[in-house]
Amino acid sequence: MSLKAQTQQLNNQLDKCKHKLEAAKSRGDNEMISKFTDEIDALDKQINSLRSKQEYDLNKERKRLSDLAFSREITREEQADIGKLKKSVKGLVIVHPTTKLGKAMRLEVMTGFAPRKF
Questions:
Q1: Which residues form a coiled coil (predicted)?
Q2: How large is the average pLDDT for residues 19-45?
């Protein structure tokens, strides 16, 4: 299961627990209130752990790409036939500015990263 799917699943569980906690509070059931508060704390801890893992992976990928020897903007003509460009340049990685990676790298245009000039 991917990190994104795990995060979504944990967020859904957290939402259910919060609703059940509200119901337990309205009934005044102290045993259930303590159970759900403990469960909410555990889920929050897991979600924060997964978020930090995602951030770590994103920063690792950003560092790997910025360490590549060459990078430049991809022109409109190259964008039109991106498959041809990828086949002609070995090891080319293209990053779009609206993706998480593009935002982390603070890109403003579609950029290609490669180990040698292209």
A1: 7-53
A2: 94
* Torsion 15-18-24-30 (CA) sign: positive
Structure tokens at 78: 């190259």
Is the CB of residue 9 less than 8 Å from the CB of residue 47?
no
**Calculated CA dihedral for residues 53, 54, 60, 66, nearest 10 degrees:** -160
Contact between 88 and 116 under an 8 Å Cβ cutoff? The reply is: no
Whether the full predicted model's pTM is greater than 0.70, yes or no, is yes
Q: What does the block give as tokens for 111?
A: 């950029």
According to CATH, the topology of domain 68-118 is Ribosomal Protein S8; Chain: A, domain 1 (3.30.1370)
